[in-house]
Amino acid sequence: MDSSKTIYSGASGVSRPDTSAVLNVEEYASSQPDQGRTGYPKPSGQSLSYWLQQVRSDPLLNHRTTKELPNHVDTVVIGSGITGTLTTKHLLETRPDEKVLVLEAREFCSGATGRNAGHCKPDQFRGFGKYEKALGAEQALKILQNEQDTWEALVSYVKENNVDCDLWIGDTLDVPLDDEVADIARDVFDRLRKAGGKVDHIKVTDNPEEAALITRIKGAKACYAWLASTLQPWKLTAHVMRSNIEKGANLQTYTCARKVTNGENGQWIIHTDRGDVACNRVVHATNAYSAAIEPSLRGLITPKPHMCNKVVPPRAWSGTNALQNSYAVLLPDGGLFSINPRSVGDGAIMFGGSNPGQKELDAWVENHPENCTNDGLARIEYVTKHVRDLVEQEFPGWRDAEFGPGEGFDYSWSGIIGLSADGVPFVGELPGKPGQWVCAGHHGHGMARIFTAAPGLVKLINGQSWSETGLPDVYQLTEQRIKRIEEKTAAPKVAII
To answer: Where is this region: Disordered (predicted)?
Structure first.
């Protein structure tokens, strides 16, 4: 399919005409963020995510392969999260003599990858309705299949390389807490099946009593279960980067890229706080910060703070009584809680997603746009409050459980999401700027996309066609796609899951 002919109408919410209930397909925010805003990574005072707290003695955090920046390399990869790290991996595998420099503004992998809720959860049905409406059934099916492919690629890599990253594989549960949301979920599931989507691997429980037993959530109206994973994302990324360094990659932390300008003989100059580097090729792998470095991405990728909570369960919900599944709890008004209970780790429970308190944070950022890249936020009570309300109302016995020191609502931190203007990532070469490549705008769902998007980008760099990437056509960065976005009167809203 020629992606330039794809019709965009905006990935808006899926709901019935007679109800305002939305199946978590809208960005859960008080208002659409100002798409002109952007910013560089916060230089100091960042909150430490749970994952970063665990690795404070790891020398990779402030690693510099060489004392000084090189004057010239073949490729500069800006960003050391999972996108930049995997892109470097595939570049070195396909171009073993390539001189690759990875620039990181702060500590290694201290952006979104090192701050998320620790899920790799392929969307297998819920997003079909919004993608079908915005992009057509063919692309909607491809997006869901790509997410499954991504999960399988991640799991295969971890197993084949024996990566120590707390990988858990098991049933993830989508749990609507409202009759209307359950009805919408059923409608979307049925439409997916009729469109030829793969659904045999999804276990569906429509009986609320049975759903409550399976999920251990009192208000469950239904349950949709399929295989997914949780993991320690920093440790996975670090494993890949160590291998990259052994193969010749040059990692330079605490080196903020500020802009890219034209050099001599078709080269690009990367201007950093520590000096300039000339290169033949640039890979923008900074996600939320992309538009700060490359102005042509302004309005296409917009930064937005998001919170994640770490909760230590009470004894009544520990040991053999600990949660055994990951979750997406779907709320009546379009919000969502993601839940990662760290089943093969320490049992601490990560709560992410778009809970109702996120609206207040979004409104605050709209009034204080200088905080659009503020990942120094921690213990935001109006976000934590809704996590507390959920577990006390829906987890039997939690409200009355005895909490000792070290148990309970321990900590929360912020990460910066790179919102895409049309809800799906940008992968490809920047129009009019040959040699500048982008893999960014993952819209809070990068772990379910990057393990295929990054190698797909490298295939394009190596001259292969878009069809050879195996990625959905609508992910491709083209002039036509940018023009469609610029001509839209309102930006779409897509869930953070």
So the answer is: 1-20
Judge residue 391's burial from the number of C-beta atoms within 10 Å of its C-beta, 0-12 exposed, 13-18 middle, 19 or more buried.
Answer: buried
Whether the per-residue pLDDT at 31 is higher than 60: the answer is: no
The SS3 call for residue 80 is coil
Which DSSP letter does residue 341 get? -
pTM higher than 0.90 for the full model? yes
Residue among 252, 228, 383 at smallest CA distance from 306: 383
Q: β-strand 301-312 against 408-420: which pairing, if any?
A: antiparallel
Ramachandran angles phi, psi of 378, nearest 5°: -155, 150
Is residue 121 within 8 A of residue 328, CB to CB? The reply is yes
pLDDT digits (tens, 9 = 90+) for 379-421: 999 999 999 999 999 999 999 999 999 999 989 999 999 999 9
CATH 3.30.9.10 for the 3-31+174-226+302-419 domain, yes or no:
yes
Give me the residues paired with residue 260 across strands. Answer: 270
φ/ψ (deg, to 5) at 419: -70, 130
Q: Does pLDDT of 288 surpass 70? A: yes
Mean pLDDT along residues 130-137:
92
Q: How many CA atoms lie within 13 A of 297 on its CB side?
A: 35
CA 53 – CA 60 distance, rounded (Å): 14
Where are the chain's structural domains?
Answer: 3-31+174-226+302-419
Q: Which residue has 């997603």 as its token pair?
A: 353
Q: What are phi and psi of 234, to 5 degrees?
A: -65, -45
Query: Is 80 exceeded by the pLDDT of residue 496?
Result: no
**Which band of pLDDT confidence, cut at 50, 70 and 90, is reported for residue 335?**
confident
Instruction: Specify whether the CB–CB gap between 293 and 104 falls below 8 A.
Output: no
Distances from the Cα of 310 to the Cα of 220, 413, 415, angstroms: 23, 9, 14
Q: What CA–CA distance (Å, rounded) separates 72 from 87?
A: 19
Instruction: Report yes or no: 284 and 418 within 8 Å, Cβ to Cβ.
Output: no
